[in-house]
Structure formats: structure tokens, C-alpha cells
Amino acid sequence: MEILLNDTYTLKDFGMICEPGHVNPLTPTFENKTIAIPGKHGLYNFGSEIRERVFQIPLIMIERDRTLMQHKMRDFISFLFDVYGKPKDIKLSFDYEPDKYYIVQCASQIDAERAINTGRMSIGLVAYNPHAYSQVYSDEITWGSEVITFQSSYLLGHSGSNGLVNITGATNLSVIVDGMAVKPVIEITGSATDLVISANGYTISLGTFTNASWVIDCETYTVIKDDAGTFISNFRDFILIPGDNNISITGTGISLLIRIKSRDKYI
């Protein structure tokens, strides 16, 4: 088994290999919100909250020179921490699921067991955002992709979204979402009067603008217009659900380039 770190490094780059028996949990940890009422059987359930996901990766290094082994171990530890000595975010993906990644940090102290010619350690990595994400945006799922291949879980016929689309009037766009519900990023350039974007009962109203550029990030609740932060109402709950989403774009005087992009995410 091999893992890829920050799209660039493998364990072999640090002189290590992964031993059998790593832990990649199928679900994150979660907490059930319940309360017991005196005199009532059972518990009242107020739902669950998803917590972190923790990976345990057993590693081995084979190196006859003890000094060189220590140098390699320090190089690996330096990779896990930032210049201030704090655990840093690292992009992690597994070779048996190369189309998905997690953002992880070193979770706990790492103890190295040194023996003749070998060094062993088990590293704990924690994803505080426990979801797995697609390596590409939904409109980048195309034939010939070097990232999304036949090793990926996407089915034939998954068309993602339309990419950058030229719109000159009211229209509908289709965006296919795999996995869980997502909040997209909407990029717009051009002009329109009373522009409204609607999907799944949610709407975004941009009003009237001329030769403007917008970046609306529904996940981080940020809106940039012409390179400056601004505010619009009713966009925080704009959600795309699994399956085919019909996105309605209405208004007058529409002359736009629009891209609606998101990364599919999974439990």
C-alpha cells in the first residue's frame, strides 16, 4: 500500500514503506446527542454531530547507518510540521482510492522503535474536516483525464457540470453531484439586470451589474465582486444535492460567462 502526500511525495521519498495493517476508518467519529427523561423508557435523540477522522499508519525504515536513519526520520518529521513547529495541513490520498483526498495533520507524539538496520513508527493523522473530497472539480471529470481514471469510483456517464458557459438569456444548467450535498463556487463575468440563480428551492439574487466579475463561495460564505469583498443575501443555504441539479438562471439583458463548480465530497 502506498500513500501520496501533497500530490508529490510518497513514503519512499522519505526512505519508508507502509507496513500491513494501517487504519483508514470507513466513518469519522461522531457524537449522538441524547437525553434521558426520568420516568421515560429509552432516550430522546436530538441527532448526531460528526467529529474528526483519525488514521493510523504503521511505517518501517530499513537503513544500516544509524546516523543516516536519524537524518531521514528528522526530514520526515520536518515535513509534517511548519516552520513554527506546529502540525501543518497535509493532503493525503491512498493508492486504492486515488480520486479522493483528505486534509490531515499529525495527531499525536510519534515514537520511533530503533533496532538493528530498521526503524519502526506508527503515525496518527487526524482530519478535522472528516470528509473525503474529489481530486477535481465536477466540471473537470472528462475523458482523457490523468487524475480521474478507471481506478476512480465515478461511473461512466457522470457528466459533472458544464464548465464555463456563455449565457445570453434566461436558461437552465445541469450540474451532477456525487456523494453528499455540496455548496458550490459560482464564478460570473459579464452584465445582467435583476439576475437570479435558483436551485433546489434556494436562490441567489445579484441584482443589476455591468461588466462585473463575481466569485461566490457558498461554502465559506464569501462574495468577491470586481476583486473586492461584498455582501449579498440568501446565498448561505445554496446547496446542490446528490444527483442531477437543475439550476435556473433568470433576468434580462443577460450576457454572461458562468461557471458553477464544486468538489464532490464523501462520508
Write a concise synopsis of the structure shown.
The protein has one helix spanning 66-80; strands at residues 3-5, 9-10, 16-18, 30-35, 44-50, 53-62, 90-94, 97-106, 112-115, 118-127, 132-134, 165-167, 171-177, 185-199, 202-217, 222-225, 228-229, 243-261, 265-266. With 267 residues, it is mainly beta.
Secondary structure elements and pairings:
Elements: E1 3-5, E2 9-10, E3 16-18, E4 30-35, E5 44-50, E6 53-62, H1 66-80, E7 90-94, E8 97-106, E9 112-115, E10 118-127, E11 132-134, E12 165-167, E13 171-177, E14 185-199, E15 202-217, E16 222-225, E17 228-229, E18 243-261, E19 265-266
Antiparallel strand pairs: 1-2, 1-7, 3-6, 4-5, 6-10, 7-8, 8-10, 8-11, 9-10, 11-19, 12-18, 13-18, 14-15, 14-18, 15-16, 16-17
Report what the structure shows.
The radius of gyration is 24 Å and the shape is globular. The protein is built from 1 helix and 19 strands. The chain has 2 domains: 3-130, Elongation Factor Tu (Ef-tu), domain 3 (Beta Barrel), CATH 2.40.30; 138-266, Jelly Rolls (Sandwich). Helices cover 6% and strands 49% of the residues. Strands 1, 2, 3, 6, 7, 8, 9, 10, 11 and 19 form a 10-stranded antiparallel beta sheet that branches. With 267 residues, it is mostly beta strands.
